[in-house]
């Protein structure tokens, strides 16, 4: 016993030592990671991408600095060609008398900023006005949809999406006009381009048209719980191109509107749920049913999320160990899983408190069969052997030993006739 206890103590000590060593190793690795910093945490691909982007940016900066200071290391003619003309002087007849060139790239940038200052300021003002207009439109849509139902929320989502795209397009057109771009020509070109893109982007057009039909058909709305092609979730947004769903696990799914083939809306009417509970075959059915009838009002009162009272539907089947009693109820789809769990608990407690046996899987172990059993006597063994010998013997008509003299003679004559016929044919 002393040796066994010592071995146990030694093994426990060794285990604790191993655990402490593992903890120390983990702490060392954590310290190494902290020392490495953000660079050490990056993968090899991330490091290569960072180095490549850094080199490209440094090369662009170097090219810009060389361009801005090209006059310091190039001759004047080449520098004038690179930097360009700043302004020309003219005489009374309109002839160029002198040409002035930019002395550095910084001067070019300063003049461009000063010349475009008005356009830059106006572009910023247009962007601010566009942002403010979209904010006000969004606010008006949200305020108008506060008292509405799910359909109004769905239409509001569509209107906000349309307002966003329209605001962006108008702002881009105004900004291009400020910078002197011929917007009319662009619109005419966009009309032709739209036709070409429409032929190549039929899926996008299908998505938009399908989104409009989803809105106006009103088969499902924002906030409904639906099943779309096997995915169950709550509709959180319906746009012109996609519909977004959120499931119970917090996972978002974006589905293009044209790919929505089958939809099951679970929120328009209360959902059906069933609860079943087994009772032993030894329980009297009428006693169990009377207890159910007495306790159902209490269960309904304890579950306010039920849209209709829970009812006892009857016996739904006979299992391996008991009779199955079925209960049926209705509730909102958002509460179905929790209500089912609550009713399962209440029905189980009802059975347990009223001494109704609930069967469960059990294993019964029987003692092994004895091995010292008596053997057959010689007389009994002979009886069994004779029985099986007679059982396996051939019938008298097929056994040559048991055939009569007449049967043997007939067979010999038929055999001789067959052999004679073969010789004649040869």
- Strand order, biggest sheet? 6-5-4-3-7
User: How does the overall form come out from the CA principal axes?
Assistant: elongated
Largest sheet: 5 strands, antiparallel
* Structure summary, number of beta strands: 10
**Uncertain stretches of 5 or more adjacent residues:** none
Query: Percentage of helical residues?
Result: 55-70%
Question: From the alpha-carbon coordinates, what is the Rg to the nearest angstrom?
Answer: 47 Å
Specify the CATH class of the domain at 271-353: Alpha Beta
Describe the structure.
With 426 residues, the chain is of the alpha+beta class. Among the domains are: 82 residues, no CATH class; 60 residues, SH3 type barrels (Roll), CATH 2.30.30; 83 residues, Alpha-Beta Plaits. The protein contains 12 helices and 10 strands. The N and C termini lie far apart (100 Å). It has a 5-stranded antiparallel β-sheet. Helix 4 packs across helix 5. The model has no long low-confidence stretch (mean pLDDT 79).
